Amino acid sequence: GLGAWKKLSFQFATALLMAGFGFVIDRISIPGWGVVVLDPITGVLLSICWFVVLMNAVNLIDGLDGLAGGVAFFAVATLYIVASLDSSSNLLTTLFAASLAGSVVGFLFYNFNPATIFMGDGGSLFLGFVIAAVSIQTQAKSSTAIALSVSVLALGLPLLDTVMSVWRRIQRGQHPFRADKGHIHHRLLAMGLTPRQATLALYGLCAVLAVLAIAVKLQTNNDLRMVLVISAVVAILAALVHLFRFRELAVQRQRALLLEDQLALPPDARLWVRDWARTIRTTPETSAVWDRLCEAAAALQLRSVDLKLYLRRDPQQTNQHHYSLFRDNEDLARLPYETEVVSLLGKQFWYGDLAATFRSGSTADDLERRVLIRILGEAVAEHIETHQLPNLRDRFVVSRLRL
């Protein structure tokens, strides 16, 4: 199939084409405020976004047998009822909404759990596209704002799920179009409901939102009642957000605490590093120096440590050591790398470099790691200066510049 960006490009192109055909939102209605007339550019941009959002909303909710079809039915049926209540509505558009609702019901006989026919991306995107077009054209221009408000309420479930999905993926540092198992229907399944029960539960929510949407239409001449109806809708949606967002934040917090535990420095890390640094300075054997560095890497939660010495070419001498400690898990792999490089400088020569790489977690721990790595690097330079002094000119090739 097409990639996410290609699909989105086609959706924007289709929405722009529909706006060119006159499917444009020219005003919106705000309860207690009145009707706000939009300028042509704003109306076209809002219409394009409306098409794209609804297409993706219906597509993203299509995760269980019959779910997207049922959501679309409640939305289209609501638009049909609202259009029937308005004498100024376009008769052809009203009949089209009725026929579309009937078609979806016929499809649900074969698409409901257990399904024998599946909708797929083509079907769900088409339904979202048609609902967007019908919502704009259901009523005359003087009532377009009300039709749009009704559509927002009737499609509250997929719209909310889409917003929460994008927010969740961005919060996790994932691509906003990356598929996951965090949608509302997935949460219901995780709570123990069967696919059929989860679908019926969401049908019930859509039915409640549809009734409230029709109530908004019936109470357009009474701002107070309309505000109360919309407040009820907001309360329902807020309860859903609280339920699922709270769980999401709890999982994220638990994951953050786990990462902090995995990356946290031991309380005695500075004391240990001082002991290792003292051993590195006093030991005459270079191999023992490398062993102490590896022990320090494990204690400091370093991902890798590299010791590179600028030695003259000699088959008997090793000028580079590399030690990899950790294999990142899925959570740690999302964190950025930090690398601290310590130049091993003596009085006359630049002996080499000590480079340590680690995953960046807590800012305080990152700064402490850098300080401790520098202490170790200075100890290595002092070891070379002290225990290999007679052979420095013969072994090392990089002289230290003097300014």
Question: What can you see in these coordinates?
Answer:
The protein contains 14 helices and 6 strands. The protein folds into 2 domains: 4-261, no CATH class; 269-395, Beta-Lactamase, CATH 3.30.450.40. The chain has 403 residues and is α+β, with helices and mostly antiparallel strands. The longest helix is centred in the middle third of the chain and has 41 residues, at 223-263. The chain is elongated, with a radius of gyration of 32 Å.
Keywords:
about 400 residues, alpha+beta, Beta-Lactamase, 2 domains, 4-stranded antiparallel sheet, two-stranded antiparallel ribbon, 6 strands, about 10% strand, disordered C terminus
Structural class comes to alpha+beta
Could you spell the SSE succession in H and E letters? HEEHHHHHHHHHHHEEEEHH
How helix-rich are the residues, as a percent range? Answer: 55-70%
Q: Uncertain regions: pLDDT < 50 for 5+ in a row?
A: 326-332, 398-403
Q: Into which percentage range does the β-strand content fall? A: 5-15%
Number of strands: 6
Mean pLDDT: 74
What is Rg?
32 Å
Largest sheet, spatial ordering of strands: 4-3-6-5
CA distance, first residue to last residue: 64 Å
Largest sheet, described in full? Answer: 4 strands, antiparallel
Helices and strands in order:
Elements: H1 4-20, E1 27-30, E2 34-37, H2 40-60, H3 67-85, H4 91-111, H5 120-137, H6 144-154, H7 156-171, H8 184-190, H9 195-218, H10 223-263, H11 269-282, H12 286-299, E3 304-309, E4 320-324, E5 337-345, E6 350-359, H13 363-387, H14 392-395
Antiparallel strand pairs: 1-2, 3-4, 3-6, 5-6
Helix pairs in contact: 1-2, 2-5, 2-7, 3-4, 3-5, 3-6, 3-9, 5-6, 6-9, 7-10, 9-10, 11-12, 11-13
